[in-house]
Amino acid sequence: RSDLCVPPSGAPTRDVLLVSAIITISLSVTVVLCGLCHWCQRKLGKRYKNSLETVGTPDSGRGRSEKKAIKLPAGGKAVDTALVPGQTPHDESDRRTEPRSSVSDLVNSLTSEMLMLSPGSEEDEAHEGCSRENLGRIQFSVGYNFQESTLTVKILKAQELPAKDFSGTSDPFVKIYLLPDKKHKLETKVKRKNLNPHWNETFLFEGFPYEKVVQRVLYLQVLDYDRFSRNDPIGEVSIPLNKVDLTQMQTFWKDLKPCSDGSGSRGELLLSLCYNPSANSIIVNIIKARNLKAMDIGGTSDPYVKVWLMYKDKRVEKKKTVTMKRNLNPIFNESFAFDIPTEKLRETTIVITVMDKDRLSRNDVIGKIYLSWKSGPGEVRHWKDMIARPRQPVAQWHQLKA
């Protein structure tokens, strides 16, 4: 009968069922693909973020291996220093400015950029409970040529040096001594604006009998070159040569220690930073100091604190505390506000200087602290904490530097 071929009213036809199944399968595939895409984006985003976090300060170009020598008679006393012809210890041509990172072009948020680019976050945490300041480390090689009676010292590179300049960087070079002889020394070139310098320079102590060599101590001092004032010591390394197998060149990594000239015992300063992004301001609270270096004849000091706001190496604004008479552990509790637009934070440095007031002569500098996102590890940690906790005072002790 013809009515047997007609489906009951409201019942779906076979074609309708087939189309519905196809639509259902398509929707399921779309959901799965969207989920996979979202997962891929998360994974790629994580990889991209990690690549940003690993960006560090670019090294300057590796220079050719340079050779400098000291000629010594059989007695082992240095009598002359011979440098490479036409070469001076502080060659201006060697002062290359490091290339600028292109990371700022990839990151829209200045705050997140500073958090990701701040160097040594893992190492900062490793030294969180350590009171000793991290001064970086140096790599060098030592060996002795018995046929030529020559001691060879190669200064290779350094890493994670602290910033000593207003710009948040340093211009490091290395002095090489064979103690106890302090009169004769050799020096590397100056590496301009570089906290991870590569020197790759070779130094020869010629005509030096082996029995005299093993009585000496190899002393390396890393300094920050300053054209207009005294070079700032960064750190030092000493290694007795009788503890080294000199029959072949050996390479060492050594942590730098505070220089023995007393620069490591200038005292500490407790201060807090409070960043307010909506008001475009930073409040610096100078809280107190302890164990300040005595600068006066009476074994004490009259300390006060200067706070400079620097932008692109230029002094913008200065504030200072009152002077505390004859006090090596003063309590200041004074706050200063500085207007800093968010877009200028990356080029901003706050310089804290503890001074000793003198009525009859020039005031003495007890020590300094440079605060920015590209200073030393301790300063960077404080700066990062300030950015990460807006509108909250973040306090931290800092070791005063020369």
From TrEMBL:
The record's listing under Gene3D superfamilies reads:
C2 domain
Q: Which residues form the signal peptide?
A: none
Q: Which InterPro entries match?
A: C2_dom, C2_domain_sf, C2A_Synaptotagmin-7, C2B_Synaptotagmin-7, Synaptotagmin
Where does this polypeptide localize?
Cytoplasmic vesicle, Phagosome membrane; Cytoplasmic vesicle, Secretory vesicle, Synaptic vesicle membrane; Lysosome membrane; Peroxisome membrane
Q: Where is the composition biased (Basic and acidic residues)?
A: 89-99
Q: What Gene Ontology terms describe where this protein resides (cellular component)?
A: axon; lysosomal membrane; peroxisomal membrane; phagocytic vesicle membrane; presynaptic membrane; synaptic vesicle membrane
Task: Look up keyword Calcium and say if it applies.
Answer: yes
Please list where the region (Disordered) is annotated. 74-105
**In what way does this protein cross or attach to the membrane?**
Single-pass membrane protein
Keywords tagged on the record: Calcium, Calmodulin-binding, Cell membrane, Cell projection, Cytoplasmic vesicle, Exocytosis, Lipoprotein, Lysosome, Membrane, Metal-binding, Palmitate, Peroxisome, Phosphoprotein, Repeat, Synapse, Transmembrane, Transmembrane helix
One Gene Ontology biological process:
regulation of endocytosis
Q: GO molecular function terms here?
A: calcium ion binding; calcium-dependent phospholipid binding; calmodulin binding; clathrin binding; phosphatidylserine binding; SNARE binding
Q: Tell me where in this chain the C2 domain is found.
A: 134-254, 265-398
The transmembrane residues are 16-39
- Give the record's subunit note: Homodimer. Can also form heterodimers with SYT6, SYT9 and SYT10. Interacts with calmodulin (CALM1, CALM2 or CALM3). Interacts with CD63; required for localization to lysosomes. Interacts with APP.
User: Which family does the similarity line name?
Assistant: Belongs to the synaptotagmin family.
Name of the featured protein: Synaptotagmin-7
Q: Which organism is it from?
A: Cavia porcellus (Guinea pig)
